[in-house]
Design a protein that fits this description.
5 helices; two-stranded parallel sheet; 6% strand; 173 residues; 2 strands; mainly alpha
């Protein structure tokens, strides 16, 4: 092979590599929504399952609060009337009822959070896959995402998608 052939092959290879590099860069820049974010607090609070679980368990907790309030009222009446023999037993009942209410609240919050986030994580993964996102970030209020271009916050779209899936909307795939 002579010098001209080697030079020509080198020039052609360089042009092909430059073309490929430009093509790859252009293709990469065309994907504008590879990374998006969702406001976790809004998503959790506006998800219909959260509302439904709050309504269901709220009734149980209200019932326990009414029981506790009734015991406090009875305790106040007995204390005013000077019945020390029944006060000790009632104080024990009050402590027990108060502990039950605190435990009920704690269990409810833990169970609700785990249940809702398990469902939301599934929906967010499905939504991200359908929209060909490489990464969906979760933020909590302010501070985590300091700047984002318009269109990168997909919170409302994910809320709408998750609520439609939860409600069984057949138009959502």
């Amino acid at each position: 092979m002579n010098f001209r052939s080697i030079f020509f092959i080198t020039i052609v290879n360089t042009i092909i590599l430059l073309f490929l590099l430009v093509f790859i860069c252009f293709s990469w820049m065309q994907k504008t929504n590879e990374i998006v974010y969702v406001d976790n607090m809004r998503l959790f609070n506006e998800f219909h399952m959260t509302r439904d679980l709050n309504n269901i368990n709220g009734l149980k907790i209200k019932g326990q609060k009414k029981t506790l309030d009734s015991l406090y009222t009875l305790y106040g009446i007995l204390k005013e009337n000077g019945k020390p023999e029944t006060l000790a037993s009632l104080e024990k009942q009050l402590r027990h009822a108060d502990q039950q209410l605190k435990q009920m609240n704690s269990d409810f919050v833990d169970t609700r959070n785990k249940t809702v986030w398990a469902r939301l994580n599934t929906y967010v993964s499905e939504y991200g896959g359908q929209h060909d996102f490489q990464l969906v970030l979760g933020t909590q209020g302010s501070g985590n995402v300091m700047y984002a271009r318009e269109g990168v916050d997909v919170t409302q779209a994910v809320i709408d998608f998750a609520n439609a899936k939860y409600e069984g909307d057949p138009s959502i795939e």
